[in-house]
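Final report, closing paragraph on structural work. Over the funding period we assembled a curated collection of sequence-structure pairs, and we close with a single example.
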Amino acid sequence: MFKKFYGLSLLLISTVAFADFCPCPSSFNLIQIGNSLDQILKTCCAPSSPPKTYQKPIPVPQKWSYNIAPPPNPANAVQGSVELIVTFDETEKVTNITVNAQSLTTTNCGSAPTTSFSVTPAQAGTIQIGSTAAQVIAACREPMFKQLGVPQTSNQTPPIITELQYNGPPPVTLKFVNGSLTEIIKGLNASPTAPAQ
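Its predicted structure, as stored:
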C-alpha cells in the first residue's frame, strides 16, 4: 500500500512540476536574437505578465546646457556661472563637451567643472566623449536646457518596443524592436520599464 501511495505521489508531483516548466527563456538554446515575437510566443510559455508595448521616440542629435555656479570667491563678489554644454549624436553618445567655450574630451560636473585635460574618467561626476546620456544624467543631473535636432530622414517612424517578462529563476525580460528580438536581459536588471509617454 505504501509503495502505491509513494508512486502515486511522485507521479502527481512530477506532473505538477512539469506543468510549471517553461522551456524558455531560461533555456537560451531555444531562442536567438533576431527571432520574431510570434516565434518566441510559439516556442516559449506565456510571459508572467502581459506584454508591455510602447513607441520609442525617433533618435535625434541633442545639445544639453548646464549653468553651474562656481565655488564662492571672496575676492570677486560678482561671478558668472560656468556654462557646460554637452552634445550627443542620435545614439545618445557624447560627441562634444564645451566648458565656457573651451572644447574638452573629459570634464567633471562638480561646482566648478574642470577645464584642464588632467581629469581622469574614474573620478565621480566625470563625463567624457563617448559617455551615454544616462551616464551624463547620473554625473551632472538633468540639464537646464535641451535642444533636440531633427531626424536624419523625414520618413522615419518611431520603433515599436515590446517587452515580455518572465519571473522564473532567473528573472528574464525579452526585448523586441519592431517585432524582432534584440535583447535578453537576465537577473536583477530584468525589469526595464517603458519610458513615460
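The first helix runs from residue 2 to 19. The chain has a mean pLDDT of 77. We thank the funder for supporting this effort.
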